[in-house]
Amino acid sequence: MIGFLRGRLAAKQPPQLILDVGGVGYEVEAPMSTFYGLPAVGAEVHLHTHLVVREDAHVLFGFGTERERSLFRELIKVSGVGPRIGLAILSGITVDDFHRCVESQDVAAMVRVPGIGRKTAERLVIEMRDRLKVLGGPAFVPGSGAAAGATPNPQSEAFSALVALGYKPAEVTRLLQKVDPAVVSTEELIRHALRAAAT
């Protein structure tokens, strides 16, 4: 397991970045909460990391804070929540706000995060409530868990694309909520969301 990386930020293109550590370029995927805190390309960066090993790839995820990584590790233990949805959650909601949603059982707020359906949101509220209590609430210590792979759905793909275009996660969430539920393809979701942004 790779616990952290410290090196020069060689490139950043949400949701991916490349970190030059002693002449080796590590490709890392990170949530937008981490991207917002990154310095300019060429500066030194320290990231907490989590390695996901799949049959077809080894994917390294990076986080600006230990709390983000800890929450990510707990999220991917939940059935139906893989690394991609974990990143979407951390991109669309802060760690503290996630805690508040779980504690207040605010399923509606969770559903507003792209890629989170009602059943998944309900499961998150139920399963994470007990885990967050055991881990001590907002200041919980690092957890650990086996990662499960997940196929990105059109909502999360559209979310990532719009964020890459420069829209803030909260704004992307609002734009995607305006799109007709009948729209199911990634391309159409993006097109409709951009139209909504222009009006």
* Category from helices, strands and their pairing: alpha+beta
- The CATH first-level class of the largest domain comes to Mainly Alpha
Shape: globular
User: Which segments are poorly predicted (pLDDT under 50) over 5 or more consecutive residues?
Assistant: 136-151
**Strand-residue proportion:** 15-25%
Number of strands: 5
The number of distinct structural domains comes to 3
- Using only C-alpha atoms, the radius of gyration works out to 17 Å
CATH topology of the largest domain: DNA polymerase, domain 1
Report on the architecture of this protein.
The chain folds into three domains: 4-63, Beta Barrel (OB fold (Dihydrolipoamide Acetyltransferase, E2P)); 66-139, DNA polymerase, domain 1, CATH 1.10.150; 154-198, Helicase, Ruva Protein, domain 3 (Orthogonal Bundle), CATH 1.10.8.10. It has helices spanning 32-35, 66-75, 83-92, 95-103, 107-111, 118-134, 154-164, 169-177, 186-198; strands spanning 4-13, 16-21, 24-29, 44-53, 58-63. The chain is of the alpha+beta class and 199 residues long. The chain is built from nine helices and five strands, in the order E-E-E-H-E-E-H-H-H-H-H-H-H-H.
What are the key terms here?
5-stranded mixed beta barrel, OB fold (Dihydrolipoamide Acetyltransferase, E2P), DNA polymerase, domain 1, Helicase, Ruva Protein, domain 3, 5 strands, 199 residues, alpha+beta, globular
How do the helices and strands line up, and which of them pair or pack?
Elements: E1 4-13, E2 16-21, E3 24-29, H1 32-35, E4 44-53, E5 58-63, H2 66-75, H3 83-92, H4 95-103, H5 107-111, H6 118-134, H7 154-164, H8 169-177, H9 186-198
Parallel strand pairs: 3-5
Antiparallel strand pairs: 1-2, 1-4, 2-3, 4-5
